[in-house]
Amino acid sequence: xxxxxxxxxxxxxxxxxxxxTMRFGGLxxxxxxxxxxxxxxxxxxxxxxxxxxxTVFNCLTGFYKPTVGRLALHKDGRTWLLxxxxxxxxxxxxxxxxxxxxxxxxxxxxxxxxxxxxQHNRLMRASGWxxxxxxxxxxxxAAEREAIDFARFWLDRIGLIDKADWDAGSLAYxxxxxxxxARAMCTRPVLLCLDEPAAGLNPRESAELNELLCYIRDExxxxxxxxxxxxxxxxxxxxxIVVLDYGxxxxxxxxxxxxxDPAVIRAYLGEEExxxxxxxxxxxxxxxxxxxxxPGAVAPVRDEGERQ
Length: 308
Known about the structure:
Blueprint: E1 13-24, E2 27-38, E3 42-46, H1 53-60, E4 68-75, E5 78-81, H2 87-94, E6 96-98, H3 111-117, H4 120-126, H5 131-135, H6 138-157, H7 173-185, E7 191-195, H8 203-218, E8 223-227, H9 231-237, E9 240-245, E10 248-253, H10 255-259, H11 262-269, H12 271-276, H13 279-285
Parallel strand pairs: 3-8, 3-9, 6-7, 7-8
Antiparallel strand pairs: 1-2, 1-4, 4-5, 9-10
């Protein structure tokens, strides 16, 4: 009997999240959240600190098993139910890659080696699980050359080809951010999940990040799911935005729709703070174009606690 969860995907969508709920004892971190992400598009998840954004990512990538919910990824005519899969299989088989809020490179390995590590599974298969690699057979040598060429392609794309032999930990912060994204892309994902990739970047580096993410979407045909507090990144490049607050979805739509949504403005500013603002600022918040949560603004946070 066919699993009813494996129903045909809606046209053009790569990811469906349905009724996602994540409880930690009596704490509900994500509460009945549903949204869908289109293939070859950038979908942003935004919201104040503690809204549940990173918890959604952790459920999608296998760090958490959701309490309730269906997480369906559609790839090559097949549906993968991520909530039923082990974390390493989500990356290996379903083709979901991610980065983290804190950079997690191998600092003592070279820049090139960091990108080769990401292709470990492909190389191991080509080596016949070691024996062909030990014997240096042509099949393995060809796969190794292909992996090196692919790594050098990404190093050239992110402007680090001249630093291929440097230790990754010696790179500037912005270079490390781009290298981490390139490493994720070396797994050849169909869905790239980025957790605050613009954190700590200056305006020039943020602009370079925007260019890189648009390239990944437009030229590599890879869907991007993005968590970000830097609204200059979110509003400029996102095709669709989902807004969370206290674990619930409060709005979704295009950047213009989200920017002008009263529920979103309340989530970021609160009613009391908004009432105290000068009338001209309140007018800007609800008008089309750049505003307090528009391009150039960084979303305020409620507290200094752990980001979710």
